[in-house]
Amino acid sequence: MADSSLLNELVDAFRCLPGVGARTAQRMSFHLLEHDRAAGLKLAAAMHEAIEKITHCQRCRTLTEHDLCRICDNAMRDESLLCIVENPSDVIALEQATDYKGFYFVLMGKLSPLDGIGPEQLGLDVLESRLEEGLVKELILATNPTIEGEVTAHYIHELAASHDVSATRIAHGVPVGGELDYVDSGTLSHAFDGRRAY
């Protein structure tokens, strides 16, 4: 690479993004410097403003620049339903793919004692306060089907049961358009165990 400490700093800055290695970071840097400096300035300004202004929703913990996100601020949504997800990106995915009209609670991770992530880091005390309000009738557990996601779902299921709140788990299984001989055994096992009447 060219001998420029500023260029090296730019490449290193791009490498903080997930999935961006040295070569990709270098290509991105050269593209902005050689072909689109205006886009680079726009990107830098947008990143600066977002980092300065975006925080967590006081009710569901997703990312927003307001005290309450647009979902929590919507009085038309069903307050008896609360969907538990790991990340803000999961909220966007569910909003785009489903007609779910309840509220969300974003854990910002999953239980992982080896990484020092316990119930306190996931805001489960805040979740328990919501359950104590008595408005939630069903918790929909939409954590990822990883070992940590399953442990997290089980922990939250127990928390819901202690407050007499029903807990359901989203189904996991064969993707639409998938062929059984290409699906891994864990996914097939979940799909088979979670079969329902046709």
What attributes characterize this protein structure?
Dna Topoisomerase Vi A Subunit, Chain: A, domain 2; Helicase, Ruva Protein, domain 3; 7 helices; globular; 198 residues; alpha/beta
Strand content: 5-15%
The count of β-strands is 6
How many helices does DSSP assign? 7
Return the string of H and E elements. HHHEEEHEHEHEH
Q: Can you tell me the CATH architecture of the largest domain?
A: 3-Layer(aba) Sandwich
Q: What's the alpha carbon Rg, rounded to whole Å? A: 21 Å
Largest sheet, in brief, is: 4 strands, parallel
CATH class identity of the largest domain: Alpha Beta
Assign the structural class, choosing from mainly alpha, mainly beta, alpha/beta, alpha+beta, or little secondary structure: alpha/beta
Provide the domain count: 2
CATH fold category name of the largest domain: Dna Topoisomerase Vi A Subunit, Chain: A, domain 2
Large-scale geometry: globular
Lateral strand order in the biggest sheet: 4-3-5-6
Could you estimate the helical fraction of the residues in percent? 40-55%
Any low-confidence stretches, pLDDT <50, length ≥5? none
Euclidean distance between termini CA atoms: 60 Å
What is the averaged pLDDT score?
91
